[in-house]
Amino acid sequence: MKNVLPLLCSLCVTTCFLVAADPTNTPAASPASPASSGASEPVRDAKIIDWSEHVKLMENLNNEVTVEGVVVEVSRASSGKARFINFEKYKKGSTHCHGVVFKKDLDKDDAGWAELFNNIQGQRIRITGTVTNRDGAPQIKIDSKSQIEIVK
Questions:
Q1: Which of the four, 26, 58, 87, 141, has the lowest number of CB atoms within 10 Å?
Q2: d(Cα 117, Cα 113) in Å, to the nearest integer?
Q3: Residues 6+ positions from 49 with CB-CB distance below 8 Å
């Protein structure tokens, strides 16, 4: 029986990878509600992913997505080479999704970035960009302020 458990675990993991890698295995998009339906929720784009949906974000590595969430903090890398837009208080080793702006992009318009970072604190925003993997955490690289939208 001890030899069966590792085999079953291995089979489950392999199956998960195969299902996730299958390009024909995509969920059908749900139809959007018409604006006149009186619904209190705004119509949401099917490509918008909540910042907390780690698995869904990691399934979209190297794809462009829009991530939505409330900004808890904007932090600076200890090296000074990047700024992070965090939807959760940063903890070392955390695998939460975040946006990152690297120094070369910050240097293009330092005052404009500083103003944007102040304005988004505590706000619900959307970041559109390519999902990359940084130490097990989904990361959205931000090259331009136009990739960030404050949700009204």
A1: 26
A2: 6
A3: 56, 57, 60, 65, 66, 67, 68
Tell me the per-residue pLDDT of 25-61, one tens digit each, with 9 for 90 and over. 444 433 333 333 232 333 345 579 999 998 999 999 9
Q: Do 68 and 50 form a contact (C-beta atoms < 8 A)? A: yes
Residue whose token pair is 């130490």: 135
Residue position matching structure tokens 């079953």: 8
The answer to whether the beta carbons of residues 100 and 139 sit under 8 Å apart is yes
Count of Cβ atoms closer than 10 Å to residue 109 Cβ: 13
- Rounded Cα–Cα distance for residues 37 and 42 (Å): 11
Selection from 59, 110, 61, 57 nearest residue 83 by Cα? 110
Please give the model's pTM, rounded to 2 decimal places.
Answer: 0.66
Give me the long-range contacts of 58-62 (CB less than 8 A, separation at least 24): 58/131, 58/133, 58/138, 59/20, 60/131, 60/138, 61/131, 61/132, 61/133, 61/138, 62/130, 62/131, 62/132
37: its two tokens = 């339906």
